[in-house]
Specification:
The complex is a heterodimer of chains A (252) and B (327). Chain A is of the alpha/beta class. In chain A, 37% of the residues lie in helices and 23% in strands. In chain A, the strands form 2 sheets. Chain A has a 6-stranded mixed beta sheet with strand order 6-7-8-3-9-10, with helices on both faces. The C terminus of chain A is likely disordered. Chain B is built from 15 helices and 2 strands. The chains are: A alpha/beta (252), B mainly alpha (327).
């Protein structure tokens, strides 16, 4: 049984079909990339899974149970954590307090002792290499550190499924490489990951499978090498006229 | 308290000692002052408790509950009705009054706390006005003519002491409740909701429920303050207890002292009330003008209130000698 199953899901905003009849499944332990040009509906899919917006048609299942009608906080407690494309640190709090929120509100938090919660926070800060900044106000972090914080907060929730919305956008090569390494390490800890990414090198390298969205629909799915050769994908990214051009360029 | 909880660590032992000393001095104050000043400080405690209560919603959850005075009025009228029409004693009447205010906040919170920013502020003012109209036109409240409560049994000195210590305890309880909330899940949740409601929600915080909790606790304390005030004044009128200026003044105290800090609103209440006693009593006509001026000055120069100023001063004192040494 798939960990997450999205079945014929649609969502419109006014007359715009942001997500149109999309179906896919993610298996336990996978890293799945979700790519597509701007406005293809990738973030909408993530918002639908985390419950921030409701599904018009179709159904989403997590561990075999339907998520429709559930509030985002209930979905979060079932084991789905996410990050935001535009980072959303809790201002006026320190890095440690931000991560503390993840640990305080996870499904089993009510039964945990405060010392245990502090341990979780300390481990998570270490995992995301934020120990040195633990007691800094979040306002003092740079972008790369803020992205790490987004991940740390999500990890403190001890999720089964992690949704990453462009965690690498705006970072330099070195920072991207570090983050790729971290994402892989999280995956090795048994966390299933769905990642939206525009940095092709990262997403093609990280993902076991790639899903491609275009104008709200899913146009291709498969291993990265296969997907990058798919004529529909090339067309979506580069337009029809360029298709006759050198395919080599596209593959890079 | 936990060592790694930074909010707890910030509170230095020196601060705690000052706090305890201040409480002892205030508890012993009636030995030296009397009459007029007892009344002034009693009302100061009342406003401090209401400011602390409002702080939970405004300072921590970040919702501008502008019409929070409605719970003051509800508490006052509930006590008046129970004591005059049903001959209840003060303490049970007061408890029921607080719980009524809390219940009303809990019920109204579900729809109203979905509104954000200005819309929520306006809605709370609307509730205040609507309840005032209802109280004015319903028979049991005495309507626009007002309602008289039984007098406190005992002489005037005893009466003064009773209200002084009751309001004092209410203020201490409001501080204790706030400190307890701030260090627990509710406090963390509210602070998260304040800046990033969506991120808070996807991290497992039931944001609507938490906001409703904060508002209900705020209403409970405000309602009991209203109840005590009613018994103290022994006469109520809708236009007095539902006066929007009560809400405004308490709001200014929170902003002045420092929203989202445990002691800020208390400091703000003391500062504003003593200032008004010492200075404005000479200039009653410009009272409102000075209040307005203070609001403008705070929003321009003191966004973190007096507490922010104190913290800044503390930081300068700690860092200044070092940086000089480095050069």
């Amino acid at each position: 049984m798939a960990l997450l199953e999205v079945r014929n899901v649609s969502r419109s905003f006014g007359g715009v079909h942001a997500v149109n009849d999309v179906s896919f499944a993610i298996n336990e332990g996978e890293i799945v990339g979700l790519i597509g040009p701007n406005g293809a509906g990738k973030t909408t899919v993530m918002n639908l899974i985390s419950g921030l917006i409701t599904v018009d048609k179709g159904e989403i299942f997590f561990q075999g149970q339907p998520l429709s009608g559930l509030k985002p906080h209930t979905i979060a407690r079932k084991g789905i954590a996410r990050t935001f494309q535009i980072v959303k640190p809790f201002q006026g709090m320190t890095v440690r307090e931000n991560v503390m929120i993840g640990a305080l509100f996870r499904a089993d938090a009510a039964g945990l002792k405060r010392t245990h919660i502090n341990d979780i926070v300390r481990e998570t800060l270490a995992l995301l290499e934020l120990e040195a900044r633990a007691d800094s106000p979040v306002e003092e972090l740079n972008l790369a550190q803020r992205k790490h914080l987004e991940l740390a907060r999500a990890m403190a929730m001890q999720p089964r499924l992690l949704l990453l919305d462009e965690v690498m956008a705006g970072l330099n090569l070195k920072e991207i490489e570090k983050l790729m390494h971290l994402v892989r390490r999280l995956n090795e800890r048994g966390i299933t990951i769905l990642v939206i990414e525009h940095v092709m090198k990262a997403v093609m390298n990280l993902s076991h499978r790639v899903l491609v969205m275009y104008y709200g629909g899913l146009i291709a799915a498969g291993p990265p090498e296969e997907v990058s050769q798919d004529p529909r994908v090339i067309e979506a990214y580069l337009g029809k006229r360029r298709q006759k051009g050198p395919v080599k360029e596209v593959q890079q | 308290m936990d060592k790694t909880v930074t909010a707890a660590r910030k509170r230095s032992p020196a601060g705690l000692i000052i706090l305890v000393l201040a409480a002892i001095i205030l508890a012993l104050l009636p030995l030296v002052i009397q009459g007029y000043w007892i009344r002034v400080i009693t009302s100061l405690f009342m406003y401090a408790a209401m400011a602390e209560a409002l702080n939970l919603v405004v300072g921590y959850a970040g919702y501008a509950a502008f019409g929070n005075g409605v719970f003051f009025g509800i508490g006052a009228y509930m006590t008046a009705i129970l004591m005059t029409h049903y001959k209840w004693g003060f303490f049970p009447a007061s408890a029921i009054s607080g719980l009524t205010a809390m219940l009303i906040a809990f019920i109204l919170g579900w729809p109203v706390l979905r509104l954000r920013g200005h819309y929520f502020a306006i809605a709370t003012i609307g509730i205040n006005m609507a309840v005032m109209e209802i109280v004015t036109y319903v028979g049991i409240t005495g309507g626009g003519k007002g309602i008289s409560l039984p007098l406190y049994p005992g002489d005037i000195v005893k009466q003064g002491m009773f209200f002084y210590y009751s309001m004092f305890i209410l203020m201490l309880v409001s501080i204790a409740i706030t400190a307890w909330i701030v260090h627990g899940r509710l406090g963390y949740g509210l602070r998260a909701i304040k800046t990033q409601p969506d991120a808070a929600e996807v991290m497992g915080i039931d944001t609507t429920l938490y906001k409703v909790y904060a508002w209900s606790i705020s209403a409970l304390i405000t309602g009991i303050a209203g109840s005590l005030n009613a018994y103290w004044l022994t006469f109520l009128e809708p236009i007095y207890v539902f006066d929007i200026m009560i809400s405004v003044e308490v709001f200014v105290m929170v902003l002045l002292g420092g929203p989202g800090t445990i002691l800020g609103p208390i400091l703000g209440a003391f500062f504003l009330k003593l200032l008004s006693e010492l200075v404005w009593s000479q200039f009653t006509l410009i009272h409102m003008g000075v209040l307005g001026l203070i609001i403008v000055v705070i929003s321009l120069f003191l966004p973190a209130g007096l507490m922010g100023l104190l913290r800044q001063a503390g930081r300068w004192r700690r860092t200044a000698p070092q940086s000089l040494g480095n050069r």
